[in-house]
Amino acid sequence: VRDPEIIRRVRFALSSPKQVADMLNLKVCDSMRDEVMILCPVHGEKNASCSVRKRKGTISVRCYGCQFKGDVLTLVALTHGLDDRSAFPEVLATACELAGMWDEADAVRKGKAAPEAKQRAPLPPPEPEPDYPPAREVSELWDTARPVTGDPEASALLVSRRIDPDRVAALDLARVLDPLTFRDRLPRWACFKGKRPVSSSWTKTGHRMLARVFDAAGEFRSVRAWQVDPSSTDPKRVPPAGHRSSGLVLANERAQRWLRGDSAPSMVVVVEGEPDWIVRSVLFPHETIVGIGSGSWTAEFAERVPFGSQVVLMTHLDRAGDRYAEKVAESVKHRAQVTRWELTELQ
Ligand SMILES: [Zn+2]
Fold first, then answer.
1. How far is the CA of 67 from the centre of ligand 1 (A)?
2. Angle, CA 96 vertex, CA 131 and CA 5 arms, to 5°
3. What is the CA(282)–ligand 1 centre distance, in A?
4. How far is CA 284 from CA 169, 171, 311, in A?
5. Ligand 1 center to residue 63 CA distance, Å?
6. 241-272 pLDDT, tens per residue?
7. What end-to-end distance do the CA atoms of the chain give, in Å?
8. Looking at the chain, which runs of residues are DSSP E strands?
9. Is this model's pTM higher than 0.90 or not?
10. Which of 236, 107, 324 is nearest to 311 (CA)?
11. What is the spatial distance between Cα 118 and Cα 103, in angstroms, rounded to a whole number?
């Protein structure tokens, strides 16, 4: 077991069933005190039969439809497309971030013990950290994807969020995969499994709208796959299966230039999640806009923020959004003036 003390603390920190379900984008159908019923993230269903319950201070999950059982870390792994055994450190680090335990998250990623945790059993040798998918495969996939305007379902999804598909295509913010692309024509990581017996390709699960994510040097490293079928019970946006997804942000054209070092913007806008990022990028193409999620923002991004600039934080006004805002604000406070938007004009 990797650092039992961190595991224990993060399980106690993420112990509200409703908040955890919301943070992980799981559809809550019925909410009681200390228990919510969600659409099962494993077996795909229309009526909720998966219980997320607080028991003795931590979350326990049980699906009455498919007998899936787990804890909060299982849910984090499932919703992030990570294997909870082979990629356990990344699962734990992601959970720490969701709980606002940034130091612990960094410690886990570096394979070191958290500073506070003192007496522990010696750690086993660290598992190799999953890396980003191969750069060539990522750019090839993006190159074969088409404008969103050519896909009626993807266009409808954007329109339902009051986003103009023509603008998305013109600004090249997202693209779609041909739904008829067979699995063997896609990279192996372009799939979603959850706890299904077999994983399915993104073209089959409906995760076929793609947005690019970039590292702190502005390098195109990976994608986020967006579910276009509104009736699907899968997580709405997923990263490539089995690969690292932390340390990457969504970036509009201006933000890509900034990260590459080709410009020094006087203002950087930080929003949360793909929908907000697309909306903002369509409305304000002249702003420098990055979109973050759990694990996105790192010290490397903070170091790119120009001294004396302004950082506008527009993360969601909920617990997760507060944590993202706090983390970004803390990391740039010595170089930039930070403003947190308390109003959501985007709704
Ligand atoms: Zn189930």
1. 6
2. 110
3. 38
4. 15, 11, 15
5. 5
6. 888 888 999 999 999 999 999 999 999 999 99
7. 43
8. 28-32, 35-38, 50-55, 58-63, 69-71, 146-147, 175-176, 191-192, 200-201, 209-214, 220-226, 237-238, 249-251, 267-272, 288-292, 310-314, 337-340
9. no
10. 324
11. 15
Sequence length of the chain is: 347
Angle of helix 88-98 versus helix 4-13 axis, rounded to 10: 40
- Per DSSP, the three-state class of 11 is helix
**Tokens representing 274?**
């793909």
Yes or no: say if 292 and 249 are a contact pair by the CB < 8 Å rule: yes
Distance 26 CA to ligand 1 centre (A): 13
Q: What share of the chain is helix, strand, coil (3-state, %, to 5)?
A: 35, 20, 45
**Ligand 1 centroid to residue 7 C-alpha, Å:** 25
Q: Angle at Cα 31 formed by Cα 25 and Cα 35, nearest 5°?
A: 90
Distance between Cα 195 and ligand 1 center (Å)? 9
Rounded distance from Cα 174 to ligand 1 centre (Å) = 31
133 Cα–ligand 1 center, Å: 29
Ligand 1 centre distance from Cα of residue 65 (Å): 5
Which residue, 295, 289, 288, 286, is CA-closest to 271?
289
Tens-place pLDDT, residues 279-334? 999 999 999 999 998 889 999 999 999 999 999 999 988 878 888 899 999 999 99
How much distance in Å is there from the Cα of 62 to the middle of ligand 1? Answer: 8
